[in-house]
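Revision sheet: structure tokens.
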Amino acid sequence: MIKVIEKSRKETEQNFDSLIVEIPKDFALSHGLPEKSFATLTVRNGKIVSEIISYSDEDEKEVEKFLAEFPGFDEEMKRVGD
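Predicted:
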């Protein structure tokens, strides 16, 4: 099953033009994609455009370091609906 990372929230009145979907490892590998991948789905001119974005353990460490330096950032982003 594909896990949706971004979810629209009923309490916010934001319009999203993109959706980020985490691609499961087994699906990615069986289709020749990087093991750690996301797909972005963007509505552009009435059509959906997709892009595959890969990430590494180093990318994850950078995010963890950033969140450690700014401990309230993640909660603030969730609060504003991002």
